[in-house]
Design brief:
The chain has about 350 residues and is an alpha/beta fold. Helix content is about 40%, strand content about 15%. The strands form two sheets. Strands 1, 2, 3, 4, 5, 6, 7, 8, 9 and 12 form a ten-stranded mixed sheet that branches. Strands 10-11 form a two-stranded antiparallel ribbon. The longest helix has 20 residues.
Length: about 350
């Protein structure tokens, strides 16, 4: 029942055409490297922001709700082992550099997410550990990052050679940064069922541990299960199941440590499975649960959808299809931010 979910919606053929327009609109010129961020609190919200759309959405959400942490979606291969936003926009793009600097000046920070359901994931395109490390380092240094996310889904999640190469590259890079007195937090975003992660996802995490990769958190994609259900309960059930699964891999962690190792990312409003609708009530349920358990991160797909459509029940990449005020999901989830 698990699936390639949120990003498959975002990069339909129509959206790809819009993406090309958005790249022109945001500008392809290079900007100076962003200023370093201040990092992240113990609990925070960091919704996914579409890098094929306008970077102005970051400041719009911040001004409307106080939201100041964001996840940049997505960095994938632009061809020949070359990391780019959306596969077609330089990491040094002036529009995104400016938006990141403004957010950090306001006390926020960003996470760069690699992967997603569309395009070619870098660990598949870069066929050696060294070449993959070089691309990760270029992005991390170029954007002044202390935290990266790996959204691994579809066939890639079961590709053992690719997973091994990615985890080895990240472990080596993490150790090199640590030796230089720098932090590199590594997150994994993985598809789930309400009763927890499937085996391929668990194998990926076990492989990470075998390489001594320090995993900061495991972020569940609580969406697109395949049939109608209470989406708030499904999200909290999946989180509870993950808590037990993580404890079987990281056996030395305390109960509180395991909760703090979790993230949770629903698709707001109408999901790709259109009978599944994640409502504002569901968001409040999840936010209350996350706050009480000490879950580190809440996110959602996606910032550009955080407004009502013209009619409820509509599946769209520019609105949620459920009853809501503008930026209401951002506001609810930002309530956990410390």
């Amino acid at each position: 029942m698990y699936r390639s979910c949120k990003k498959a919606l975002a990069l339909t053929p129509a959206a790809l055409a819009l993406a090309a327009t958005a790249v022109v609109a945001t500008g392809a010129s290079a900007g100076a490297a962003p200023n370093p961020g201040k990092g992240f609190p113990a609990q925070y919200s960091a919704p996914y922001i579409e890098t094929w759309a306008s970077p102005n959405a970051m400041s719009d959400a911040r001004e409307a709700t106080g939201q100041k942490y964001f996840t940049l979606a997505f960095i994938i291969d632009g061809g020949g082992c070359d990391a780019k936003f959306n596969g077609d926009t330089d990491i040094s793009d002036a529009g995104w550099t400016s938006a990141i600097n403004d957010d950090r000046a306001a006390g926020g920070d960003v996470i760069a997410s690699f992967g997603g359901a569309s395009g070619t994931e870098l660990a598949s395109a870069c066929t050696s550990v060294d070449s993959l490390k070089a691309q990760y380092k270029r992005v991390i240094d170029g954007l002044g990052l202390t935290r990266v996310d790996f959204d691994i889904e579809g066939a890639t999640v079961a590709d053992q050679a690719t997973n091994d190469r990615r985890n080895q590259a990240l472990a080596e890079l993490q150790q090199e940064y640590a030796s230089a007195g720098k932090t590199l937090d590594v997150d994994f975003t993985l598809a789930t069922n309400p009763d927890g992660l499937p085996q391929d996802q668990l194998d990926l995490l076990s492989n990470a541990k075998s390489h001594n990769l320090d995993v900061n958190l495991v972020n569940l994609m609580t969406m697109d299960y395949g049939s109608a259900m209470d989406m708030g309960k499904a999200a909290t059930d999946a989180a509870t199941a993950l808590h037990g699964q993580l404890g079987k891999i990281w056996t030395d962690k305390s109960d509180a440590d395991l909760w703090a190792m979790e993230g949770n990312t629903p698709m707001i409003g109408v999901n790709d499975t259109q009978s599944e609708i994640f409502s504002i009530d569901n968001a409040n349920t999840l936010a209350d649960f996350a706050k009480s358990k000490g879950i580190q991160e809440l996110s959602f797909w996606a910032l550009g959808r955080d407004k009502a459509c013209g009619s409820e029940g509509q599946l769209s990449d520019t609105c949620s299809g459920t009853a809501q005020d503008a930026w209401q999901f951002s506001s609810v989830f930002n309530g956990i931010t410390g």
